[in-house]
Amino acid sequence: MLSDCDLNVNTLNQISDKKGISCFGLERIADYLDVSVDYLLGRTDEPKTINQINTGDVGNNSNVNINKSSFSDTDNELISEFKKLTFNDKAKVMSLIAELSEKKA
């Protein structure tokens, strides 16, 4: 799993030594296991990720309500292409979005 997530054994040491794990490492593990980060952290008993939610309320532990029909074709295409990127490329895209948002504000 560690090699598939591009993580090393130090990640396990950080968890077992209670030093903490980076949010990026935790996200990679959650994606690998196809569960939410909140599920790994014990914040919810529901292992579903946002990508697995169709519409409506996910339960008492969440205020998430996604209506995919409100997404445009362009939104859906962007989401589809984003999901195909590597973790590092996703981080680059998110950094660019943050940079552009700051310029806009």
Describe the structure.
- This protein is mainly α and 105 residues long.
- The protein has a domain of 35 residues.
- The protein is globular.
- It starts with 8 loop residues before the first helix and ends with a helix.
Q: What percentage of amino acids are in beta strands?
A: under 5%
Structural class: mainly alpha
Mass-distribution shape: globular
Order of helices and strands: HHHHH
Main beta sheet strand tally, sense and closure: none
**What integer value in Å does the Rg equal?**
16 Å
What is the arithmetic mean of pLDDT?
74
Q: Please report the total strand number as a whole number.
A: 0
* Relative helix content: 40-55%
Poorly predicted regions: 54-65
Task: Give the end-to-end Cα distance, rounded to a whole number of Å.
Answer: 40 Å
Query: Helix segment count?
Result: 5
Write a short abstract of this structure.
The chain has helices at 9-16, 23-33, 37-40, 73-84, 87-104.
Question: Secondary-structure map with pairings?
Answer:
Blueprint: H1 9-16, H2 23-33, H3 37-40, H4 73-84, H5 87-104
